[in-house]
Amino acid sequence: MRRVRSVSPMAVAAAVFLLVLTISFRASARSTSASIDVRTAAQSSAADAGNFTGPGSCSAVACHGSIRPVAGSRILQTEYSTWVSQDRHARATDVLSNAVSVRMGRILGIGRPDQAQKCLACHSLDAPEAQRARNFTTEGVSCEACHGPATGWLGYHVTKDAKHDESVRRGMYDTKDLVKRTDKCLTCHLGTSEKWVDHEMIAAGHPDLVFDLEAFSSAMPRHWRESPDADAFRLVRTFAVGQLVHLRSSLDRVARRLKGPVWPEYAELDCFACHHSLTRAEDSWRQAEGYEQRPRPGNPPLNVSRWVTARHVLETLDPQAATELDAIMPKLVIEASRLRTKEDDVVAFANQARAIVDRGVARAVASTPTAEATSRMLRAIFADAAGIAGRGERAAEQAAMAVETLSSALARARGQDPAAMKTTFAELFQQFESPSAFDPRRFVAAMKKVEGATRQAYGLMTHGSCWLMAPGLKTRPTAQCAERRSLVRLHDRRAYAGSTRNTCAAPAASRTYSPSFKSSRAQRYR
Questions:
Q1: What is the 3-state secondary structure (H, E, C) of 293-360?
Q2: pLDDT by residue (tens digit) across 103-130?
Q3: In the predicted model, what is the mean pLDDT of residues 73-90?
Q4: How far apart are CA 112 and CA 232, in angstroms?
């Protein structure tokens, strides 16, 4: 048996001291320039309101560089310290110098990744030269990458009576707006017309892009204050908005790439429809499932992982919109999966779907989530587990992160510590450790275990209101609570006629039981 060495208290104390010393040194080294930047920003004119200062302007101990939260302050004042010592965004540029990145640069013919604009666009504070203030410094994906160029609002936002709306008017990016927050994250976690991850980059070694606003946000080291009386279901609203904005942006990306120089762009397709181990025909789940969502066997299908969960969110928010989306998406999927695509048709389908999702985004923003609505979304995802699994590993992973988030909301609403279901969720996320070996049968079995544990813990309310309380939607009496269900698997394009099934039984008995909500993807992020 391998002997584990004990760590002396002195060694621990020394390590803590070195960490504090490092942060303090970096902060104090910038404190002078930070003070200059603050004074300069307070006097800045409209001409330089869009300039970037870099993280140094935030690092002073009196600003955001404190080692511990400051009592009586409206903010923690540890934001910079938390970011630089715990957040992987701070080390995003460092990643470009590791062996895998260097090899990627060689394969792509771009030279050193840490000097290549293709990489720095997302792995740094990518500020144009013309918008860099005199004391600009860069290290990783820092404050202004999310909060916007600071010279217009930096001085104002430290004043005693500063208001968020006025800071936004002066140029701060409004991350309190859930749609804008999601859009900001997606500029790198999905891509734009200026920066993207394509099949060439993935082939060279870059990971495929997967994102979930709430799951990824919950994994970030907190550099903001959480309201002690915040509604437990607030994160469900964040989840719903994130799902629908993500789907909307992915539809935009498909339409944009179809008009680009290369199609099919394989990064838009399901990676593991091609990249998987070949088995005997009698052991192949793909052949057992068939290829009804494709124009012909052998064609790689469109990656619809952003749709399979978002459709259940939309079904809860706006059933009519969900029905319309279910009618148009199979057409988009089939046409986009053709090797000789009718580009105008796909763009038209994508634009139609986008307009429908837009309505859902507006509903999500205006909604006030409830326990019943959260339960409804969970039940729908559990019921659709086989159909989601048939869409592949990426779709299944999105669904697993969604189940994690929604279960977390139910746990918090009951005041429970989200820890008791840790083992159950760990088994679920093990299904994604080897994506090319993903087996939907094992995923469905793991989802059933999570469903059973969740029903025991929370009952998955099936009575009372089945809706998120959005304007224009009213609660329905228990006797009229009907849940639209898909009769066959999601990938079967004949499934979209829909049906109803009464699910208004009394909730099951519950006991203290709460999940651990850190997905495998989120753990890797952290």
A1: CCCCCCCCCECCHHHHCHHHHHHHHCHHHHHHHHHHHHHHHHHHCCCCCCHHHHHHHHHHHHHHHHHH
A2: 999 999 999 999 999 999 999 998 888 8
A3: 92
A4: 46
Place of tokens 């437990």: 232
How far apart CA 442 and CA 35 sit, in angstroms, is 57
User: How many CA within 13 A on the CB side of residue 146?
Assistant: 19
Supply 507's token pair. Answer: 């909730």
Distance, in Å, from the CA atom of 233 to the CA atom of 373, rounded to the nearest integer, reads: 10
Q: Is the dihedral of CA 348, 354, 357, 358 positive or negative?
A: negative
Q: Which residue has the higher pLDDT, 62 or 98?
A: 98
309: alpha, beta or left? (left if phi > 0; alpha if psi -120 to 50): alpha
Q: What is the pLDDT of residue 313?
A: 98
| pLDDT value for 133 | 82
Q: Among 120-124, 158-162, 184-188, 344-348, name the one with the lowest average pLDDT.
A: 158-162
Which has the minimum average pLDDT: 165-174, 231-240, 310-319? 231-240
| Residue 47 CB partners (closer than 8 Å, separation 6+) | none
Cα–Cα distances in Å, from 128 out to 56, 90, 154? 17, 19, 19
Long-range contacts, stretch 520-525, CB < 8 angstroms, 24+ apart: 520/397, 520/429, 520/430, 520/432, 520/433, 521/210, 521/212, 521/215, 521/216, 521/397, 521/401, 521/432, 522/215, 522/216, 522/218, 522/219, 522/401, 523/219, 525/88, 525/216, 525/219, 525/220
494/498 Cα distance (integer angstroms): 10
Specify whether the CB–CB gap between 87 and 80 falls below 8 A.
no
Residue 327, Cα to own-chain centre: how many angstroms?
26
- 17-46 pLDDT, tens digit per residue, is 444 444 444 444 444 344 434 334 444 433
Burial of 267 (0-12, 13-18, 19+ CB in 10 A): buried
The owner of tokens 């025991």 is 456
Q: Considering all CA atoms of the chain, what is the largest pairwise distance in Å, rounded to the nearest integer?
A: 73
Bridge partner list, 500: 484
What's the whole-model pTM score? 0.78
Contact 207, 123 (CB under 8 A): no
Helix (H, G, I), strand (E, B) or coil at 434: coil
Domain boundaries, the chain: 23-174, 184-525
Mean pLDDT for the chain? 79
- Assigned token pair, 245: 């904005």
Give just the sign of the alpha carbon dihedral 230, 236, 237, 243: positive
pLDDT band at 61 (very low <50, low <70, confident <90, very high): confident
Query: 375: Cβ–Cβ under 8 A, 6 or more apart, which residues?
Result: 410, 458, 459, 460, 461, 462
